[in-house]
Design a protein that fits this description.
single chain; MetI-like fold; 295 residues; mainly alpha; globular; two-stranded antiparallel sheet; 2 strands; 69% helix; 13 helices
Length: 295
């Protein structure tokens, strides 16, 4: 006889859900309120309807920032996911080096985002930074403050250094959870290293890869602190992502209505892309029922 399922444990989680929902709903409702109204201060509001949304969606400034966001996320995912998988495959599964590797991988994740931007800001300077000085001595004209390519390359390198460890740890957790029997069967069949990865390891870590994709997309698409500290959105507007542009509008220019409308559109884009990511990656099977490990 099957044991009856007890739902009473959910009552212990309800207060947490209620607190999180309350802390999320109140700020969102405030933003919604600003997105449909205009204000000149003194707590006086004037109904604007969908004017701010129309202004945002018809603005070249918005679409340019959105394009930079998507380009940055595509580059980051194209680098960090394969690199994270490769590093995880080379890490030891047993022995004294396991904790050493795990701690080393976790170190970049422990550094605050604003500190990461400051580190790379100093690191890339030609006068005192190791990277900038070394490139200058090699005859490379490197200046992330005035050259668009250098600014993008530095931000990408900074993000890869900071966040690849997250992909590594997730993939490593998936790899160590694979039963040893799979590897023993593959060894008996004489499977190649690529076949083991293709038919055993990759299907078994598909779940953590979905999580890695979603986390890295959301983080990269909403990046703010690191590029703001490093380049301030420059040179020009070349590294002005939507988050930086949003802060400039809301705080720098005090355009609360357009900033609120942009933030809601921004949130809708992130949720929509994450939903598509999750749906596609969940439905497209990596392993097939009749797949065999072949040499």
């Amino acid at each position: 006889m099957d044991k009856p399922y007890n739902n009473k444990a959910w009552f212990l989680v309800v207060p947490v859900f209620a607190l999180v929902a309350l802390s999320a709903i109140i700020p969102i409702m405030t933003v919604v309120n600003y997105s449909f109204q205009d204000t000149f201060g003194n707590n006086q509001f004037f109904w604007a309807g969908t004017e701010w949304f129309q202004d945002v969606l018809s603005s070249d400034r918005f679409w340019d920032a959105l394009g930079r966001n998507f380009m940055f996320s595509v580059i980051i995912l194209s680098i960090e996911i394969p690199l994270g998988i490769g590093i995880a495959l080379t890490m030891p599964k047993k022995g004294i080096w396991v904790p050493v590797c795990l701690v080393t991988m976790a170190l970049p994740l422990l550094i605050p985002w604003n500190v990461v931007g400051t580190i790379w800001q100093i690191f890339g300077r030609a006068d005192i930074g190791l990277l900038g000085y070394s490139l200058d001595q090699l005859g490379v004209n490197y200046n992330y403050a005035s050259n668009i390519f250098d600014a993008w390359a530095t931000i990408i390198l900074m993000d890869v250094w900071h966040w690849t460890s997250l992909v590594v740890l997730l993939c490593y957790a998936g790899l160590v959870s694979i039963p040893e029997a799979y590897y023993q069967a593959a060894k008996i069949d004489g499977a190649s290293r690529w076949s083991v990865f293709r038919y055993i390891q990759l299907p078994k870590i598909r779940g953590v890869l979905i999580i890695a994709f979603l986390l890295r997309f959301m983080d990269s698409f909403m990046i703010y602190t690191e590029p703001f500290v490093l380049t301030g959105g420059g040179p020009g507007n070349s590294t002005t992502f939507m988050s930086i542009d949003l802060v400039k509008q809301a705080i720098g220019q005090f355009d609360l209505g357009p900033a609120a409308a942009m933030s809601l559109v921004y949130q809708l884009i992130v949720l929509s892309v994450c939903y598509v990511f999750f749906t596609v990656m969940s439905n497209v099977g990596v392993d097939k029922p009749d797949a065999r490990v072949e040499d």
